What does this fold into?
Amino acid sequence: MKLGFVTAILPDLEFAEVAQFAAMEDYDCIEVMCWPEGGPERKYAGVTHIDCADLTQAAADDTNAICDKVGVEMSGLGYYPNILSGNAEEAEVARKHLKHVIDAAVLLGLKNVNTFIGANTRMNWEENFAQFTDVWPDLIRYAEDRGVYVGIENCPMLFSFDEWPAGKNLAYSPALWRRMFETIPSDHFGLNYDPSHFVLLMMDYVEPIYEFRHKLFHTHAKDMRIERDKLNSTGILGFGWSTPKIPGLGDIDWHRWVSALTDVQYRGSICVEVEDDAFCSSLEDRKNSLRISRNILRPLVV
It folds into this structure.
């Protein structure tokens, strides 16, 4: 396995600076964020370290040369929009740009692109699943034809009662994964597995690793802390009782999680995803969050 981080936490650095920092801090790889110009305003989104819309082979070669020089790989390209948005323009932009990202992966010689399924917040689960069935087979076929593997992250993207019950990303549970993989039985359609979202949803974050071992294309390492006093006050139907943390500062047993990955002989990347507000007041704090995360995970990922 290889230890990396998601570049979204370093939006103020150029790609070469991000790669250099990764090398200096003993990271093996980076998942590179590839939002289009004018991306969403939500926190940790909209970051562009590779412009996929206009990427040429020459620019891709230059990007690879940077990685080769410092000895850091790209674990894949990341783009996390709402592809099933109820806003038709937003959905169309997302679908078009996802294809740009897939094309960019080909130019860069990469196999992995990570994203969200998306969801229409005005639809229930079944209505969203019907929309998934209409939209996603073409996108996976596009990736498959180009030798690219699409990994879906399992974040529910549920932040308010207005988004209940499907959130903005339908693919958040094993029950839904089973249906999706049955609907699209492609070897190029799998998971970008993040254990923190299982903690948020009160599910076991280890057991699905065994069932979906052949669908693990990429993984994120983000921790989650349950605020028990707030949970006891509002119940699980409330909000504000969970806090994203860097690895080691939340409720996840990282030894247990990595142990399961080794059990299924996962050989891919584990990329730290920082969404911890305690480390976001300055660039140096954000760098330190990656250093602390490395110290927690490096003894387990060699």
